[in-house]
Request: fold
Amino acid sequence: MANEGDEAARRIEQAFHDCAAVLDLAGVEIRGLPESIGNLTALTTLDLSETGLTVLPESIGNLTALTTLDLSETGLTVLPESIGNLTALTTLDLSETGLTVLPESIGNLTVSLPRTPSVLVRRQVGIRGGFHRGDRLGGCIAR
Reply:
């Protein structure tokens, strides 16, 4: 759909204008985000699910106020090392992605939702790397 890229750009621009805490791009077809996304430092929730997103900019690590990051059902195959800077995260959804390796920095995440899965990696076969420090994630890793 030709207007979906315009819709994503509009929502991102509006988030800058409003100093938004929530940016919901779920279901909007996008392939990438501008590096400037890292300047939205007031964001606490970023929903990029079902977007077709294939790459995250390194600047995503600047969003240190994020508590919820939904990357489910995207085309992501790698995460930037800077993901480990998101230490305020309580929910990180990586389900239904093409991820096979997680960056070492994922071990920096210290989410604490004792009865709720806080890191969701479903239907991923052969995930390697990063999990050797998974005990610091504080949640479950579901398959």
